[in-house]
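Per your request, structure below.
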């Protein structure tokens, strides 16, 4: 059984590395969607990134712990680490819904992900276990009427908040480390120290 009740924001990602953009979005979601906590779900072996080298999960988990420590409303889930893949969102949410019995789940995503949701594996089952919290960047628009034609289960299951514009990307951070450039102030200091101590991202082309 999970310890958290109330309304939980489920924030999935590879977090390779976790950066200040992730933390800013999570903190914004707390107030934007009136959440009890944000649950960071670390993708163990993301199927959509098979063509990309992903840092071993033990390093990403350690960095995520370093990034989120000190915020009692940030939690980390091992749900996609402690079971074999492949990992589908509908199954992860089903397991979380059972683990955090009685809590309301809000699956956090960007507007671009919402547009693609009808093409995901069993999207109607995703919506059985969680509402969708869309973190919309300034200038973006969500055309719900179009999406409802493809996925009518979205009716009444979408919440939208305007998210801050954040110009930080994990891919750019990895490349900057490989090129010897500073990433200070784009990740927390404990994360930066961990990357240095373990010589992560040094061999990226």
């Amino acid at each position: 059984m999970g310890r958290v009740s109330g309304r939980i924001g489920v924030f999935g990602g590879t977090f390779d590395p976790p950066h200040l953009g992730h933390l800013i979005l999570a903190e914004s979601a707390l107030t934007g969607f009136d959440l009890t906590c944000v649950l960071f779900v670390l993708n163990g072996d993301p199927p959509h990134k098979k063509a990309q080298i992903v840092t071993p999960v033990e390093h990403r988990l350690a960095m995520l712990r370093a990034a989120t420590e000190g915020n009692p409303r940030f939690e980390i889930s091992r749900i996609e680490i402690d079971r074999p893949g492949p990992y589908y969102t509908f199954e992860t949410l089903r397991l979380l819904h059972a683990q955090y019995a009685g809590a309301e789940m809000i699956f956090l995503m960007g507007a671009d992900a919402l547009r693609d949701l009808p093409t995901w594996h069993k999207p109607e089952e995703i919506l059985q276990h969680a509402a969708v919290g869309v973190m919309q960047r300034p200038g973006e628009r969500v055309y719900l009427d179009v999406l409802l034609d493809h996925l009518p289960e979205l009716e009444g299951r979408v919440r939208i908040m305007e998210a801050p514009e954040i110009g930080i990307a994990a891919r750019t951070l990895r490349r900057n480390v490989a090129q010897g450039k500073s990433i200070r102030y784009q990740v927390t200091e404990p994360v930066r120290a961990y990357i240095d101590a373990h010589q992560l991202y040094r061999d990226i082309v």
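Residues 7-167 form a domain with the Rossmann fold fold (CATH 3.40.50.620).

Regards,
D.
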